Amino acid sequence: MQTSPLGALLTFAEHKGYALATLCEAIGGAVSGGKTSHQETLQGSVDAIFNCMTTIILSPEAFDAPDMQRETEAFIDWCKQSPHEPDAPILAPGEWEEANRRQRLAQGIPLDAGSWQAICAAAEEVGVPADTLAQLRQKLA
Q1: DSSP 3-state assignment of 34?
Q2: Which of 21, 24, 28, 63 is 20 to 30 A from 53, comparing alpha carbons?
Q3: pTM of the full predicted structure?
Q4: Taking a C-beta distance cutoff of 8 angstroms, is the pair 84, 75 a contact?
């Protein structure tokens, strides 16, 4: 899988990718009763492959349960009480997207010049009249 010295690839999606990769390693390895990648399991082998699996089946009905909602909200509240930088609040999954959506509904979607040029070029290729693009640009300004 890799050559010495041991290392790792950067995870996809930065902190979210790291969290997902870590969770997958823990669930697939440790929870299944198998192994995870760490110094002890890799000693003596630079090409060790651990192929463990855990399957989790969730009941969709469980997601409407009031007890689950309360417990999830309590957990999120507890997480948000952690010390953090004043300009970097702790957000639960989806909160950043919700805030962005509200802002964009109120103020519009930011569009850089290069993207606008690409949209215009594509529109012209399929026959959108230039005056229609000009009117649209006025609405976006």
Answers
A1: coil
A2: 63
A3: 0.47
A4: no
